[in-house]
Amino acid sequence: MLLLTLATMLACKDKAVDYSFPDGIAPLEANTASWPADMAEELTYVVGEDDDYHWAHAKAYVYADINDVYPCLRTAEVNIDRREIADWAVTADVEEGYEHSYAIWNQTQPTLGIEVEYTDTWRHGSTLDDDGALALVVSSWKMTEGNDYMYLKENSVVTEIADEGITSLDMVGHLSAALRDGETTAQYYADFHADLIACVDGMDYPSFE
After folding, report:
1. How does residue 15 score in pLDDT terms, banded at 50, 70 and 90?
2. Paired residues of 97 in beta bridges
3. Is the model's pLDDT at 115 over the cut of 90?
4. Where does residue 181 fall: left (phi above 0), alpha (psi -120 to 50 degrees), or beta otherwise?
5. What is the CA radius of gyration of the chain?
6. Nearest-angstrom CA–CA distance, 187 and 55
7. Higher-confidence residue: 64 or 3?
8. CA-to-CA distance for 184 and 177, rounded, in angstroms?
9. DSSP the chain
10. Which pLDDT does position 41 carry in this prediction?
């Protein structure tokens, strides 16, 4: 088991939480973005470049209970980069040892007459507080089948209780792909955040047409 250590305990509860998760589901790295001011239901991010990839760190709040957010984190319309993807298909239960795992095959919109395909594999796990209530969720996804234009794509999200009825998202991503950079991942996180809000509110997802 891999021990996930967070810098602070839950803001709204003084209860012990077991932060142990299976290998392969821990956050990629410490997040250097700042939290939105006044706990606004907004997203902030920073981007940069390493030797082998572009990275993006983002933080956001969703005005919903974590019990409502967790199912939406596993919803295809939230997971898919609908700004770029024309078609997709989900295969459930592709890996053992995780609460939820699935693979999403993606086919992009044609760009310069080229369509590319890739598959992301998603994993989700949660932990409970001493009272058996959902306290924290860690999600990770990684490109497991690529193409000639995409070399690395991996992300993690820590979803935690920030306050009563408010859930926080701590997002970290690495991307190495032709004509893409950290802003590409940051845009995805902004869409991911908007889609989560739509999902928990029962509203239509934003359209990118």
Report:
1. very low
2. none
3. no
4. beta
5. 17
6. 12
7. 64
8. 10
9. -EE---SS--SS----B--EE-TT-S-SS---SPPPGGG-S-EEEEEEE-SS-EEEEEEEEESS-HHHHHHHHT-HHHHS-TTTEEEEEEEE--SSSSSEEEEEEEEEPPBTTB--EEEEEEEEEEEEBTTS-EEEEEEEEEEEE-BTTEEEEEEEEEEEEEETTEEEEEEEEEEEETT--HHHHHHHHHHHHHHHHHHHHTPPPPP--
10. 98
Biggest CA–CA distance in the chain, Å, is 56
Residue type, 63: Y
Query: Global pTM?
Result: 0.89
56 vs 174: CA distance, rounded Å = 7
pLDDT of 26 over the 50 cut: yes
